Fold these 3 entries.
Entry 1:
Amino acid sequence: MNATRATTSNSTAEAERFFLPSFCDVRMVFAVVVITELIAFVVALVSPEVLGDPWIDLGLISLFMQWIALTSAALLCLARKWLTRLSNTAAALISYLLVLLVTASVSEMAFWMMLQSAVLPAFNSDQHPVFLLRSLTISTVISAVVLRYLFVQHQWREQLRAETHARIQALQARIRPHFLFNSMNTIASLTRTRPEVAEEAIQDLSDLFRAALNQSHDRTTLKEELMLARRYLNIETLRLGNRLVVEWSLDQVPLDVKVPPLLLQPLLENAIYHGIEPLPEGGTVRINGRISNGKVCIEISNPLPGVAASVHNQGNRIAQENIRQRLELAFGSVAGLEVAQQDGEYRVSLGFPEERLS
């Protein structure tokens, strides 16, 4: 079982380092069809008419180019598992040659089919070298541009991933001293009067920091994030007492969805630090969750203390921007973080796809 998980983990890591997207994905196939059709339209505009009807010419060119594009996509899909084991340079070169090989093969078959067709009487065997050379030239230029674009996009994602990893470490470093000192003071005050509670708090604190310091994975489950959040809130409840009230409403949210680590705890820390502590009477932190249009939506709200919170607003924005970027890196544009102030409450809403951790 462990060997299987390790193999799966290694395969996933190799796929993430690979610059070519998965052409087995339906969305990628759709993108290939759309882009190829746009290129076919441009080629039809600059090409001499074959049958005297521009729409029929466009149809023939589209059929020919889609044949090449979809065959190339299918071949790259089948070869992806093998290509991911190579370096990006070698994989790019082999992918390039595979596309040119497909172009040459399809062009050869298409030419002889058109030569035998009664619909295209203008074609003869003397045009064979020109047709083949023209097809290969267009494919050479387009393939080079597309592969270069995908490689640049991959480099950008890798750079963003490295920056995000550095931001996670910075966020951990920012959380630890502030929270650690408060927690140790609370535990010290409970050691003589309530030793069993102090022992539980130490256990919560050790589990919390073990998870916070764990950098071996970039995905966790919502269940683990909620356990981490509850341990944090247990410690803060000991410190703040009746000033802190926590209300949970997450019955509709699946607990096995995957999320970036340290997603909820920094937001809860902000809610307490900026919303509860400045109020002498304290307040209520609410965590609500629901499923909407295939997305998990989690909202954390806390009371607005007014002017007293303005001193720490900058730190609040840093944590929120960090989490927003990590959500976008993990799930793309379908995920995000929104902030609103309404009815005397400060609300942070998270939205991300309902994807299970494999």
Note: The chain is about 65% helix and 15% strand.
Entry 2:
Amino acid sequence: MPDSLAGIVAAFRDQRVLAIGDLMLDEFIWGKVSRISPEAPVPVVNVTGESYYPGGAANVARNLREFTAKTAVIGMVGADPNGCRLLELLRGCDIDTRGVQQDAGMRTTVKTRIIARNQQVVRVDREQRVELSPEQAGRVAEQVERAARQVDAIVVADYGKGFLNQALADHICRVAAAERRVLAVDPHPHTSLVWPGATVIKPNRTEAFLAAGLPAADAAILPLEDRALLEAGERLRQRWDCGLVLITLGENGMLLLEAGREPFHTPTRAKEVFDVSGAGDTAISVLALALAAGATPRQAAELANSASGVAVGKLGTATVSQEELATAAGNR
């Protein structure tokens, strides 16, 4: 097992990883604002460029690919131009897309962000909830079984668009347990899915309270003294029978709950925050890679926190390179 954070990051390249979940296309429209519209009190954005990136679980795969060439993804897209563009972007990153199904009757989810003066002006979502047909669900189940035999870690990103349901969640958990794979889950607060036996669950504070079935409470100044949050996290850990719960707290860092150990808080590593788009995808990716590479839960939490701190300092759906993470970890 690597004995330093830098050594753990170096071991990422040897890990084989799989991302599963809702696949999306992130569109960024860049522009300048010089006046307010005479039609309404809103800025007029003069467009200077457009960018496209994998989003949702596809962005998780893109983050994983920054650290290891052995990255695959399972999900579904439409046969529309946006779905084809997303597949092209993933393949352009050398991500294995054999587990991605195209559905001619589906519209690919697109999140469009308009950015001016380094700030997001508005986000426009075009989405359609997906319900897998029995045939599609059967193919996904087979793909999960086949891929799980060939990877070290599985990362699930639930964005609540319908690709993941309880039957598939149960199947993923069973397969991961049978193959003894790291299973890291980024849950969605409104799907009510449970992930029995997962290695680690990574909700944010709001998601933790919702998933635990507890009313939201004001945050304490010190996370380790936040009794309501600690109760929510522990209830989640026991309810889902998972070893670890890592709760992201924005500017307050992250809180790790581990069976048989005292809670652990790692403060934020962000120096400047420009854009939080995709920071959670970065965190769950690094968390899974670190655990697969032999890191302790606390080391994995530290690395996930450091990676998130780098990601929020970039504009757009950004990823973090191995060199950037190694530098951030080395500065601790």
Note: The mean pLDDT is 91.
Entry 3:
Amino acid sequence: MDDHSRNRKILQVTLAGLALNLALSAFKCSAGYWGKSQAVLADGIHSLSDTVTDGALLVGMRFWNKPPDADHPYGHQRLETMVTIFIGLVLGAVGVRLLWNALSSLHIPSASEVAPGKIALLAALVSVGSKEWLYRWSLFWGKKTRSMALSANAWHHRSDALSSLPVVLAVGGTMIDPSWIFLDPLGAALVSLFILRASYTICKDPLAQLMDKGMPLEDLKTLERIVWDIPGILGLHKIRTRYLGSNSLMVDLHIEVNPEISVRQGHELASSVKFSLMDHFPSIVDVVVHVEPYEKRNEKEEPW
């Protein structure tokens, strides 16, 4: 998938999520008000908060796809990493708030005198189904486009679906027996733990990338084999890799060649290394190859 198709698909999925979040928020707030359910009304307000991350994704796309310039010679892809972390932090804040509210309400009797109406239960069920579908669709395209930010936003959709589950239990249980309202804080506490775990999962890799984490060791060994298969390479060391974004990888390495060959021949070998690696790893956007005269070194020494 080329960059244009990738960006267009990310935009399409994000806009669909934004539209659904706005529609769901309006529906749940209305259903909570007319159905006399504070839980559904609060869930509608929670859905409205999802539009913040959708907006962050849309704004971020305008900048991380910009070409390199004088101030940013490596491009702007790191902004996608920062947007992903922002989404993860927002998700974590939602999880902490839900957990705090759930633990606090365990000590407060909350059975209502008037059972919620059927419209409130319908709104909660529609929320679970639609947000679960949106999660699966967004995660599929997040993986397909290799977009950390889109995948992170998918998990935010899943958090909204999960947070609606205790609402379904609370509303449904209260309609059967008002004393069953205690299911609400217990379910919310459990859901908040899943949300906090998702927040950690979302933030872990982007934070590692901001620390210039390199490619996995298994891929690094594959990279090494590709270079060694090129005729004329007599030595290889100082391999360094780092991610510029979820879909961009920089590689820096030193090769050793016969000291008697010409500068042109050394340059041609360096070009062979560069394009061989870029052909094998689509995520590699550039390779800097340092050409050195061959010196016999310890064969057991790792090349990175």
Note: The mean pLDDT is 79.
